[in-house]
């Protein structure tokens, strides 16, 4: 199964996330299939950049987003 999830990068107490597509059986820090966006929760308001075409392509191919990524997609208007 393919998942769309967050990969944490950055340093302690300064989180920054990449939105990646990867195999659900692998860890988030292993090789990912694609990187489709970023999420910076420290900015006010939180900064989300998503490649909508890539996200829609992966969702159409059956990739399942995690709860957090699904919320980010809803807020960005990618899904309902």
Describe the structure.
It contains two helices and five strands. It has 80 residues and is of the alpha+beta class. Strands 4-3-2-1-5 form a five-stranded mixed beta sheet. The two termini are 22 Å apart. The protein has a single domain, classed as S16 Ribosomal Protein, Chain: A, CATH 3.30.1320.10. The longest helix is centred in the last third of the chain and has 10 residues.
Q: Helicity, in percent? A: 10-25%
* Helix-strand string: EEEEHEH
Reported for the largest beta sheet, the result is:
5 strands, mixed
CATH top level?
Alpha Beta
Strand order of the largest sheet: 4-3-2-1-5
List the helices and strands and how they pair.
Blueprint: E1 2-11, E2 14-23, E3 34-40, E4 47-50, H1 52-60, E5 64-65, H2 67-76
Parallel strand pairs: 1-5
Antiparallel strand pairs: 1-2, 2-3, 3-4
Brief write-up:
This protein has helices spanning 52-60, 67-76; strands at residues 2-11, 14-23, 34-40, 47-50, 64-65. It is α+β, with helices and mostly antiparallel strands and 80 residues long.
């Amino acid at each position: 199964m393919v998942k769309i999830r967050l990969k944490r990068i950055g340093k302690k107490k300064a989180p920054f996330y990449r939105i990646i597509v990867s195999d659900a059986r692998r860890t988030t820090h292993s090789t990912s299939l694609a990187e489709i966006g970023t999420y910076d929760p420290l900015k006010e308001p939180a900064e989300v950049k998503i490649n909508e075409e890539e996200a829609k392509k992966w969702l159409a191919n059956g990739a399942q987003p995690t709860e957090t990524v699904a919320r980010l997609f809803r807020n960005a208007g990618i899904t309902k």
